[in-house]
Amino acid sequence: MGIAENLQQLKSNLPKHITLVAVSKTKNNKAILEAYNKGHSIFGENKVQELVKKYEELPKDIHWHMIGHLQRNKVKYIAPFIHLIHAVDSVKLLKEIDKRAKQNNRIIDCLLQVHIAQEDTKFGFGLDEIEGLVKDSELYKYVNIKGMMGMASFTNNKTQIKSEFAQLKTLFDSLKNEQINILSIGMSADYELAIKKGSTMIRVGSAIFGAR
Ligand SMILES: *Cc1c(COP(=O)(O)O)cnc(C)c1O
């Protein structure tokens, strides 16, 4: 199936409250435009250089999400336009985003990445650090903490994935308010599980654009 068909099929099965981020990393402008021309305007990228290039070349009403690990020295390149940063994983990064947002006269929406996987290769804060960070977030006037993002372990064990998502959902529910209302969990392999476990935003790449 083509990109347009994949997208249409995916969207027709999504509950209304779920925001779909189409993860377009490594895919070319033509592929992105195929989805865009079907009315989709939220795309996720995980590399700053690629993201900036696509931002410059593609329609300006696209909402770009940075979903990957973000290095502090690269925040300045995306600060003028980024719509949501999913993977804030250190206080230093938060401070840098605040500084660059201020320089651009913007308030940048961010999610705190929470480490839920059992692998220790994945970035993110511990579950126990999030409440304190949310309390301190008033310090960052140009950052809006909108919620949390997580990635489950790379495994076929559904029970494990469910329990990792459930931990994050419990934390999210305890902090949820008017501002904190995004829970970014779920990718091509596990978005259905994630939705059952309370996701509000899924990040889907290969199920739309094909294998990378
Ligand atoms: C690549 C990526 C995705 C999408 O992965 P698929 O398996 O292709 O859906 C989602 N989230 C992050 C952080 C990614 O890097």
What is this structure, in a nutshell?
This protein has 212 residues and is of the alpha/beta class. The chain has helices at residues 3-12, 29-36, 48-57, 75-78, 91-103, 130-136, 158-175, 191-196, 206-209; strands at 19-23, 42-45, 63-66, 84-88, 108-114, 143-150, 182-184, 201-204. The chain is globular and about 45 Å long.
Question: How would you describe what is shown here?
Answer:
With 212 residues, the chain is of the alpha/beta class. It has one domain: Alanine racemase (TIM Barrel), CATH 3.20.20. The protein is 38% helix and 19% strand. The protein has nine helices and eight strands. The chain has helices spanning 3-12, 29-36, 48-57, 75-78, 91-103, 130-136, 158-175, 191-196, 206-209, and strands at residues 19-23, 42-45, 63-66, 84-88, 108-114, 143-150, 182-184, 201-204. The chain has an eight-stranded parallel sheet. β5 (108-114), α6 (130-136) and β6 form a beta-alpha-beta unit. The longest helix is centred in the last third of the chain and has 18 residues, at 158-175. The radius of gyration is 16 Å and the shape is globular. The site of pyridoxal-5'-phosphate has 13 residues, from β8 and α9.
